[in-house]
Amino acid sequence: MSDSQGEEWVRWDTKFPWLGKAPVSTHSYVSPDYYEKERLAVFGRMWLQVGRVEDVPNPGDYFVRELAVLDTSVLVVRGTDGVIRGFHNVCRHKANRVALSERGSCRALNCRFHGWTYGLDGRLISVPDEQGFWEPVKKGERGLKPVATDTWEGFVFVNVDPNPRETLREFLGEFAQCLEGYPFSKLSMYFKHQAEVNCNWKILVDAFQDGYHLRSQHRYSLADMFMGDPRKSFADIKFFKRHRFLSSNGNPAHKPTPTEMLAFVHGGYFSESVFPPGWMPAGVNPTRSQEWATDINVFFPNTFIQLIAPGWYFVYTIWPLAVDGSLWEARIYLAHPENAAQRFAREYIMITVRDSILEDLSTCENVQANLKSGAIDDFALHEGELLARHLLKVVEDCIQEEERR
Amino acid sequence: MTLPEGFEDLERFAAWALPTESERSEKRLSGRMEEISEFYAAMHAQMGAILQHLSRYDVNEMPEDAERLLYLTLSLAEIAPAVEWYDQPTVIDGFDRRRYRSAR
Q1: CB-CB neighbors (< 8 A) of A191 in chain B
Q2: Same domain for A166 and A191
Q3: Residue pLDDT, tens place only, B36-63
Q4: Which end of chain A has fewer CB atoms < 10 Å from its terminal CB, N or C?
Q5: In which domain, by residue range, is A138 found?
Q6: A195 and A145, same structural domain?
Q7: Predicted confidence (pLDDT) per residue in A244-303, tens digit
Q8: Domain count, chain B
Q9: Which chain B residues have a beta carbon less than 8 Å from that of A256?
Q10: Chain A 338-397, CB below 8 Å of chain B: which residues?
Q11: Is A321 on the interface with B (CB under 8 A)?
């Protein structure tokens, strides 16, 4: 087909006919029964990204991740051997939380309830007044319960399935190649934002993989930075079993605002010291587009790693709290500023990202509230919403697979 | 408040010299557009000189007066979308910023 200027184009959805073309049901966004199935079949079975290795740089450093969707608190700790391990944050004596703070550092994991103490590898090492038990406590059998934990490119993943069906490596499959070699470890966390949003987790995931909403939803903010329709703005779309990838072009005719210009001129949007020429691994901007702006890597079920040309990456994680409630978390990583101009530029970009996200989150709540009314029961999806179609399909595949087990 | 020599005329914006994003954001949200715009114009008029002045310091070890000047530039970053995008302090039809938690 061709547009009015005679340019050739192919609609993206026609390249992936296996995703279907019919409108999709809204059932999975509002049904408590479906949410219960998702808890087990998706969040109970998949590898979930919970942090970075830099969050626990030294032996004894730990963080706790509350997985409300699984009623589970996971403790991630670096051992004296340097290995990062995950445990249920549950004392094997009377089930108290072993770690009470979100993060910290310790020489051993000490439960404050009755004083049982575990090594950094989870082994039970001391029980106060042990002679007060009928039988000696079998220490070898009463270590902290492990949670499968592994790392990839410095990202820490856990899997609460006692017997994960796949290793992390198998779970990522070829998708891993999109980001391998990216200098993640040279960048550090600059900001973390969190918000509880009254909508289904999939509505939030869709908000950040939707290439159709930019021109309208972000008309005051981001719209001018991107090209109009997905046929021009999308450089590439790939699906990797459960995961998905979107490479997007910027608008070469974008007119920067005065403050954006200041940040650009004085503050170094880009970090050449960290990203020398030729820094880009083959999986980043795979089409080598001259107008490349960003790659969105969506890790099923709930993690985005978004790369912004060069020197920035964002990690978005969406944690279900209920069928109609989610915890949104954005972590922004970048090269630490060396001077005031860079500090200003980073702040400016962080604020514009934050405000753009505020535009999305209110809409997510409006959509959820309206779905609850039952006024409509399906969505007709545009080609720019192809990734939303894929998400629904993969969730349903997980539920089907769980039911066959 | 004192700012480094040469920036005395920015003293009237002392209330914007705030160390955290939360405080700067709160100041923006509770401000009137006229005062936000006035601060925006005054800062833009001097940003070249400000960044030039601050460039002599390590960003993590600044004298107090220079640090206050840095905070003013961060407040400019905070209010830029209010002026350039929304023409109002809050994000148009946006999620309530106060429901958003920030952490460095």
Answers
A1: 21, 102-104
A2: no
A3: 999 999 999 999 999 999 999 998 899 9
A4: C
A5: 47-172
A6: no
A7: 999 999 998 999 999 999 988 776 655 555 566 677 788 899 999 888 889 999 999 999
A8: 1
A9: none
A10: 338-344, 347-348, 350-352, 354-355, 357-363, 365
A11: no
Measured between alpha carbons, how far is A118 from A129 in angstroms, rounded to an integer? 16
Q: Does the beta-carbon distance from A193 to B101 stay under 8 Å? A: yes
CB atoms within 10 A of CB A266: 20
Check CB contact under 8 Å for A352 and B21. no
Contacts of A348 in chain B (CB under 8 A): 77, 80
Cα–Cα distance for residue pair A279/A309, rounded to 1 Å = 11
**Are A236 and A87 in the same domain?**
no
**What global pTM score does this model have?**
0.94
| Residue A143 belongs to a domain | yes
Residue B103: closest C-alpha in chain A: A192
Separation of alpha carbons A213 and A381, rounded Å = 12
Q: Could you tell me if A67 and A168 lie in one domain? A: yes
Q: Give the Cα separation of A333 and A355 in Å (integer).
A: 17
| A342 neighbourhood in chain B, CB within 8 Å | 59
Report the residue of chain A nearest B102, measured CA to CA.
A193
Same domain, yes or no: A264 and A197: yes
Q: Is residue B2 part of a domain?
A: no
Whether residue A37 contacts residue A320, with contact meaning beta carbons closer than 8 Å, is answered with: no
Q: Residue B62 domain-assigned?
A: yes
B19 touches chain A (CB under 8 A): no
Which helix (H) or strand (E) is A241 found in, with range? none
* Structural domain total, chain A: 2
- Asked whether residue A25 is assigned to any structural domain, the reply reads yes
Q: Is residue A35 part of a domain?
A: no
CATH code of the domain covering residue A310: 3.90.380.10
Q: What is the DSSP string of A178-192?
A: GTTT--GGGSEEEEE
